[in-house]
Design brief:
Mean pLDDT: 81
Low-confidence stretches: 192-196, 382-390
Radius of gyration: 20 Å
CATH superfamily: MFS general substrate transporter like domains
Shape: globular
Distance between the termini: 34 Å
CATH class: Mainly Alpha
CATH topology: Growth Hormone, Chain: A
Number of strands: 0
CATH architecture: Up-down Bundle
Strand content: under 5%
Number of helices: 15
């Protein structure tokens, strides 16, 4: 693929990411309030629903990544994923009990089949010198879509209510699906017979250690819903909660590209240290303070964490993975860390209900410190992570 075509492809995927997150983040700021107040679920149920959704994400990404490498096609998973996400939001609008959400949550999170194939496309059209930057651009457009979606939520929520907002939120992802289906190019892959040699056990120690420490970190990285409910319980009015969501997404939008470029310059590992440190500070702040200014500042830190984590993390995995298995490795990584999300949010919900709303942050802080210590032992990514076959 020529350089001009690569740039066009990046722009199309960035635009599609914007539209999809525009729709999804029209509802995310009010999601925990909808589940707990309108449908009457408690925090443990909210944690289960959110964690269950992330587990579905992990499985769908692993499956789509494997099949994508196997059939040497990527684009079809992306536009199909956007359509599934759109359909799920319409389903939320008609749910009358929290149990009804489970099917549509599966549909919504199954839409993440787009993740690993899309990331593999971005990795394929990138070089070592701009891979972090390109992932940063994609993440920035995700976050910009989120910012715009939150603004729409704030402006329309009181006027049209939960359910009409959910219906409206289903529209932008259809636009994203159309853009990818009709405009995006896809590199033709070579013979797939080499895929027969793929085996997770043959990935090297650095990949496995990074996967392990990422799982530790993910176990403590419970859903953002807990942060929003914490703010509400600390005195913020429900109408202000979407503004806190807007704050951290705006910060993430602003810093995604700079942190992606920084990872190109100083290395993915260094930026990951920074990102983990931001999350540790989020936990400390929620443990120690409850004043309005401190909570707002904590959402700024959370935005810095979100904006710095994904570009460096995805570039890191992409460079550990061999070219022919990028989607499989990205999907496997998302599967393992995503499966941890179910016990993460469920555990946080139970700790919240049984021991108090600060306890999940103590738990997360301990796991974050463990992940940081383990990261010291991961070597910079090599260009080849399979051992030679005899």
């Amino acid at each position: 693929m020529e350089e001009k075509e690569k740039k066009k492809t990046l722009k199309i995927f960035a635009a599609a990411a914007f539209f999809n997150d525009l729709g999804s983040d029209m509802i995310y700021p009010i999601w925990p309030l909808f589940v707990t107040t309108v449908l009457g679920a408690n925090m443990a149920v909210l944690g289960f629903i959110d964690g269950f959704g992330e587990a579905i994400v992990s499985i769908s990404q692993a499956i789509s990544g494997y099949i994508s490498d196997r059939i040497r096609k990527r684009k079809v998973f992306v536009w199909m994923g956007y359509l599934l996400g759109s359909a799920s939001r319409a389903g939320y609008a008609f749910s009358s009990a929290w149990r009804h959400l489970l099917f549509f949550r599966i549909l919504d999170r199954a839409g993440k089949i787009r993740g690993a194939p899309r990331d593999a496309i971005i990795a394929d059209i990138s070089s070592d010198e701009n891979r972090g930057s390109n992932f940063g651009i994609l993440r920035a457009m995700d976050n910009f879509g989120a910012v715009c979606g939150i603004i729409v939520c704030i402006l329309l929520f009181k006027l049209i209510g939960y359910r009409n907002l959910f219906l409206l939120a289903s529209v932008p992802s259809v636009i994203g699906a159309f853009l990818v289906f009709s405009k995006a190019a896809e590199e033709k892959k070579s013979d797939s017979r080499i895929y027969q040699n793929f085996s997770f056990k043959n990935l090297n120690g650095n990949f496995k250690l990074f996967l392990l420490l990422s799982s530790f970190f993910a176990l403590g990285s419970f859903s953002y819903s807990f942060l929003l409910v914490y703010a509400k319980n600390s005195g913020f009015k429900p109408v202000f909660v979407p503004i806190l969501y807007l704050i951290f997404n705006s910060i993430a939008f602003l810093v995604s590209v700079p942190f992606g470029k920084l990872s190109d310059k100083i290395g993915r590992k260094a930026v990951l240290f920074i990102s983990y440190a931001f999350w540790a500070m989020v936990c400390l702040n929620f443990i120690l303070v409850r004043s309005y200014p401190a909570i707002i500042a904590t959402f700024v830190l959370y935005g810095l964490h979100k904006g710095s984590l994904e570009p460096s993390q995805k570039a890191f995995i992409s460079e550990l993975a061999p070219d022919n298995f990028r989607a499989s490795c990205l999907g496997s990584f998302q599967m393992v860390t995503g499966l941890v999300a179910l016990p993460a949010s469920l555990t946080a919900g139970v700790l919240w209900e049984k021991m108090g709303m600060r306890i999940p942050f103590y738990f997360s802080l301990i796991l974050t410190v463990a992940a940081i210590l383990m990261l010291f032992f991961v070597s910079p990514p090599a260009r080849k992570v399979f051992r030679e076959q005899s």
